[in-house]
Write a structure and sequence with these properties.
- By secondary structure, the protein is an alpha/beta fold.
- The chain folds into two domains: 134 residues, 3-Layer(aba) Sandwich (Rossmann fold), CATH 3.40.50.2300; 135 residues, Response regulator (Rossmann fold).
- A six-stranded parallel sheet has the order 2-1-3-4-5-11, sandwiched between helices.
- The longest helix has 17 residues.
């Protein structure tokens, strides 16, 4: 006799719950109590139940597809963060039986055009945004049309924006980086950042807060470059070292690599006293290979929260005010006391 295929009703009976509860576990798990959700998931696993996607799409009018724009690759190492986010997002979406539809755009205007085209010609349930900036036009466009979306990045310049976002606490990360260098005895801790962008301002604020806490903010040293130019960062680092900086906190690993190049040149020529403290931001593979101290962004957590937020919206939950700020983690390495070799300078920075 052929074994019957498990159904929603049979799973419900096995778990001792209603069919609606099983449906909620599959489509809106946050509506179900943890113990009940676990019992239902165990029943699903034991029975081998698989969702009928064709019937589900007809019933819910969903395609189980999430849209994500891909921008041109930048020169900086920090672009690797978005690559990591993309992979983590795809993995999390696939785990929940969703697909990520990627499309290439040059800028915000092109992305908005793509939104309109995809909504008119394709089945897309919602969008995930990256590269958010001041008064981002994409969030306004999607909000006005009641299109579900979540942003990786805060609504810079619009604190009252009523949409879901997930971001990394850059201020906390740079505060930890600066405190770390101060604990090592550095007293002229400079900041190397970007000329534009809300995330750059956020990271600079963390640096300033730590300097103030340690009584080191009387004459702060800072320089800014356009984008993640390693060459520009190397030049800006020369100015910082000329002004007396003995350590540099950077807004990205790409900028820190530029500062590292300059520090290496100056120490080799005998015009800069080692050790020099250098900390980047992003904890990219390049930074790890170079022994560069850096602030690691929990990208997998961000991706998981982004998918969960978007699926909650699709389930009808009001998540417009869901704002998740995820704490980064400092990864200290050799560049916190950078020197060419052990004989460069045996004397460490003076303790306070």
């Amino acid at each position: 006799m052929t074994e019957k295929r498990p159904t929603l009703a049979s799973v419900a009976a096995q778990a001792g719950v209603s069919r609606q509860t099983v449906s909620n576990v599959l489509n809106a798990p946050d509506l179900v109590l943890p113990d009940t959700r676990r019992r239902v998931l165990e029943a699903i696993e034991a029975s081998g139940y698989r969702r009928n996607h064709a019937a589900r799409q007809l019933r819910t009018r969903r395609s189980n597809q999430i849209g994500l724009a891909v921008r041109p690759a930048g020169d900086g190492a920090s672009r690797q963060v978005l690559d990591q986010f993309l992979h983590a997002l795809v993995e999390e979406a696939q785990r929940l039986e969703y697909r990520v539809v990627m499309f290439s755009v040059e800028d915000d205007a092109a992305e908005i055009e793509a939104f309109a085209s995809l909504m008119a010609t394709s089945d897309i349930d919602g969008f995930v945004l990256t590269d958010t900036d001041d008064d981002d036009p994409r969030t306004a466009w999607l909000t006005e049309r009641d299109v579900p979306f979540v942003a990786f990045g805060r609504p810079w310049g619009n604190a009252d924006a009523a949409h879901a976002w997930i971001d990394v606490d850059g201020a906390a990360g740079e505060r930890d980086a600066t405190t770390h260098l101060a604990d090592l005895g550095y007293r002229r801790i400079a900041f190397l950042g970007w000329t534009e962008g809300g995330s750059g301002r956020d990271r600079r604020a963390g640096w300033l807060a730590a300097l103030s806490e340690r009584g080191l903010a009387g004459d702060p040293l800072e320089r800014f470059v356009d984008g993640d130019s390693t060459a520009g960062a190397a030049s800006a680092a020369r100015e910082l070292f000329d002004a007396g900086a003995d350590a540099v906190v950077c807004a990205s690993d790409a900028l820190a690599i530029g500062a590292l190049v300059t520090a290496r040149e100056r120490i080799a020529r005998g015009t800069l006293r080692a050790p020099i403290g250098l900390v980047g931001f992003d904890d990219s593979p390049v930074a790890q290979a170079l022994g560069l101290s850096s602030v690691a962004q929990p990208i997998r957590t961000v991706a998981q929260l982004a998918v969960r937020s978007l699926l909650d919206q699709l389930a009808g939950l009001d998540v417009a005010q869901v704002h998740e700020l995820v704490a980064p983690v400092l990864r200290p390495r050799a560049s916190s006391r950078f020197r060419l070799d052990e004989n460069d300078d045996e004397e460490a920075p003076a303790a306070p």
